[in-house]
Design goal:
single chain, about 90 residues, mainly alpha, 3 helices
Length: about 90
C-alpha cells in the first residue's frame, strides 16, 4: 500500500492512537478551558451605535403591548371568515 491510501491509513492510525491515550489519561478539553482575549466589544460598539441612531424613536416595529395582544385574542371572529385560511382538506 502506497501513496494516498497509505497516507490515509497512517492518519487514521494516528487518530486512533491519540484517542486511545487521551481516553486512558482522562484528558478532557472544552471550549470553556480556552481563554482568547479579543477586542470584540471595541469592534462591535460603533456598529451598535450606528444601529441605535438609525432606529426611530418609540417601540420597534411589529411589537404590540400585552394589552393589545389580549384584545386581539379576545376579539370575536367575524361570521363568514373573511380570512384567507384554506379548508382543512386543502392543507398540507
Amino acid at each position: 500500500m502506497y501513496g494516498q491510501q497509505r497516507t490515509a491509513q497512517l492518519l487514521d492510525d494516528l487518530k486512533t492512537l491519540g484517542f486511545r491515550y487521551a481516553t486512558r489519561s482522562g484528558l478532557s478539553i472544552c471550549i470553556a478551558d480556552t481563554s482568547v482575549k479579543t477586542d470584540r466589544e471595541k469592534i462591535i460598539a460603533p456598529g451598535r451605535a450606528r444601529r441605535a441612531a438609525d432606529q426611530p424613536p418609540g417601540p420597534a416595529r411589529a411589537i404590540i403591548t400585552d394589552d393589545e395582544a389580549r384584545a386581539v385574542r379576545a376579539a370575536p371572529v367575524a361570521a363568514g371568515g373573511g380570512g384567507h385560511r384554506r379548508p382543512d382538506s386543502e392543507r398540507h
